[in-house]
Design brief:
CATH architecture of the largest domain: Alpha-Beta Barrel
Number of domains: 2
CATH superfamily of the largest domain: Glycosidases
Mean pLDDT: 95
Strand order of the largest sheet: 4-5-6-9-10-11-12-13
Bound molecules: (2R,3S,4R,5S)-2-(hydroxymethyl)piperidine-3,4,5-triol
Largest sheet: 8 strands, parallel, barrel
């Protein structure tokens, strides 16, 4: 098992000496391609939830906190809108931010603030009125046909200057109110950027920029998907992909200017979120089927080149199909891009993905719309807006909650893995160091399911896929397993291959708030003779195996 490298240990030591003065700044650290977000100087797994879009007002917060509590979340993601902090140009009002931060502290949760500025789901709806309706000063993009788009141009210099000024004011204010406590641990810059309906800005400013050579930083990172020139204009290098890639660069560049200026004032980690392009469809030039210019998987390299002050491009998961989720996670988790899922649907079908996402070593995850404001997210998410919506996530988060630090450290050390039941309901397996694990679903706890089982023969509560398990290999032969609705078999692999094996211990228990293991019982006999059967309720096991 890998040890923490010197530079990560040094970073941990530095932040702990700083802690004597003020809480250390949250920061992202990397170790052999695995990541952790350090909060208070220690790895922190974000068990997040995101509030509704319109809950960013003091009087709306009680319904948010109630859902946060039921969800056992340790982090709330919530918008701060440009329109609310700068309703009149140059006059800032941080009343909401002050209330939010104070109440988050009282509720014992951290905050991830979502800057709804120039773009919110690509549109300008969250800009102040003095921006929204001033097309001259804050130009919209033009389509190929010369018609104005709804979307503000990333090449509008005054738009950038005004957004940057507001964002910097926000970051300056956060520094003033939160430097000592670091309740705010990350900031999202803009929200689901890009443009629907036109691939890029065809106004004269867009045409002129499009004819410029591709910047060297982009050339160094983004290889053309089809043969093209090694350097030159966007068209020469990227052929049919040039329009989309140019727009991605323009948007990323704009975001970079905002993030860089904000971080110069208060250096919080930052990310952008993405309305996905279909991860299973063969790569093809933009044909109107996703928001051009957003940080889709195919342009992460362009974002990395153009926006070094953005730490992460994160996928928003709103397609619940398991093959699509798996493909998206594969594409967004990269040695240069920590896995972080800033949004996913709040329907029960998504809950099992928490195991897969945290098992893969993500720094965090957040279902969207975990908020008791009376607004249903169906069909994108849950039908109901009550405790039944929160419960599938809350029970899983409750199991992880005391481990938020420890899990983050294990993830940084590359010791974790995760499984989520597929839509095909088929068994899955994975190999950890010297041990394999297979998982099957829809099994009773005792004995095997007959081959000719009919729907009514399956265990209750398994009509839809909801099984999953996350593993942390905490020693050569020892695992922490958190899971539900799954049967597990462990087998000797790697250096153990060919040996026989037995369980030494299969302890069921809990972690106390200090992260100490409290055993309830040791599973043996019937409880392990038919595999390790994790029930409907998320259950924590500490398993020790021996190969002999
Ligand atoms: C993704 C966006 O980023 C959110 O702000 C919200 O609009 C959801 N879609 C819709 O539920």
């Amino acid at each position: 098992m890998k040890k923490l490298s010197y530079h990560v240990l040094a970073a941990l030591a530095l932040v702990s000496t700083q802690a004597l003065a003020a809480a250390p700044m949250p920061r992202l650290v990397q170790q052999d391609g695995h990541y952790a977000l350090l909060v208070d100087g220690k790895p922190f797994t974000m068990l997040g939830v995101q509030a509704h879009n319109s809950s960013n007002y003091p009087n709306a917060l009680p319904k948010v906190w109630a859902a946060v509590k039921d969800a056992h979340a340790n982090t709330l993601e919530i918008p701060v809108a440009w329109e609310q902090i700068e309703p009149v140009e140059g006059r800032f009002d941080f009343g909401y931010v002050d209330t939010l931060v104070a109440e988050a502290r009282r509720n014992g949760v951290r905050l991830v603030l979502l800057w709804f500025g120039t773009w919110k789901n690509t549109g300008p709806a969250y800009t102040p009125e003095w921006v929204k309706f001033d097309d001259k000063r804050f130009p919209r993009m033009l389509g190929r046909d010369g018609k104005a788009s709804y979307c503000l141009s990333p090449l509008g210099e005054q738009t950038l200057a005004a957004d940057r000024k507001a964002f910097v004011a926000l970051m300056r204010h956060l520094k003033q109110i939160d430097e000592a406590q670091r309740t705010v641990i990350m900031v999202q810059v803009e929200n689901e950027v890009g443009t629907y309906g036109t691939v890029r800005d065809f106004a004269p400013r867009g045409e002129a920029a499009f004819r410029q050579p591709v910047p060297a930083a982009v050339l160094a990172r983004k290889k053309p998907p089809v043969p093209g020139a090694a350097s030159g204009t966007w068209s020469e290098v990227y052929g049919p992909y040039a329009d989309e890639y140019f727009h991605a660069w323009a948007v990323a560049n704009y975001i970079e200017e905002i993030a860089k200026a904000g971080r110069a004032v208060y250096d919080l980690p930052t990310f952008v979120n993405n309305a996905l392009r279909d991860p299973l469809e063969p790569l093809a030039p933009w044909k109107g089927n996703f928001a051009s210019g957003g940080p889709t998987y195919d342009v992460i390299d362009i974002y990395k080149a153009a926006a070094p002050h953005i730490d992460i491009a994160g996928p928003d998961l709103y397609a619940p199909q398991s093959d699509s989720v798996a493909a998206t996670l594969d594409k967004f988790q990269r040695p240069d891009n920590a896995l972080f899922v800033p949004e996913m649907g709040n329907a029960a079908a998504y809950a099992r993905y928490v195991y897969r996402i945290l098992g893969r070593g993500a720094i965090g995850v957040a279902p969207f719309g975990i908020d008791y404001a009376d607004y249903s997210n169906y069909p994108l998410g849950a039908k109901r807006t009550d405790q039944t919506m929160v419960e599938p996530f809350g029970t899983i988060y409750a199991a992880f909650a005391p481990l938020a630090q420890q899990w983050g450290r294990w993830a940084l050390e590359g010791r974790t893995a995760g499984i989520a039941e597929g839509d095909d309901r088929k068994p899955q397996s994975l190999v950890l160091k010297d041990w394999g694990v297979s998982a099957s679903f829809r099994e009773w706890q005792f004995g095997a399911m007959g081959k000719d089982a009919k729907e009514e023969d399956y265990p209750p509560g398994t009509a839809a896929p909801n099984g999953g398990a996350a593993f942390a290999q905490i020693g050569a032969d020892e695992f922490i397993v958190i899971g539900q609705h799954v049967r597990l078999h462990f087998w000797p692999a790697g250096a153990n291959e060919g040996k026989r094996s037995m369980f030494a211990r299969v302890e069921e228990g809990q972690f106390d708030p200090q992260g100490r293991w409290i055993m309830e019982r040791n599973w043996n006999g019937d409880q392990v003779d038919h595999g390790v059967n994790l029930p409907a309720r998320p259950t924590i096991l500490k398993i020790r195996l021996r190969a002999y």
